[in-house]
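ok trying this again, last paste got cut off
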Amino acid sequence: MARAEFTKQTKRATLKRAEGRCEAQGALYGLPLGQRCNASLAYGVEFDHVVLEANSHDNSLENCGAVCPKCHRYKTDHHDTPTAAKTLRQQDKNVGIRKRKGRPFPGSRDSNFKVKMTATGRKVERRWG
């Protein structure tokens, strides 16, 4: 499913609500509990899904935050990316998709080597032979 971004109306309303200041608050953005960033958005603004979009699919005004690039980068690196990766792993596990454990058996289709049908059984690199 393609990711849907915030509409222009939602972005305008979020900027009006923020009053030109970063809305990042708390440990989710790398700040002490209860503290707000309040950096000026004059140097750049990014619109953040407060609840991860991959999990909620919510593009409403309540889920949109106007944050400075520094706070957005922190939340993306320390919270959003690991959470999204875990969600995908859990979804794959639920439908039976598994990651390969260990190396493929030499000579098998997934291996880089193929076994020649000779008396010696000499192994040859699959890419060249």
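PB: full thing came through this time. The chain is about 35% helix and 10% strand.
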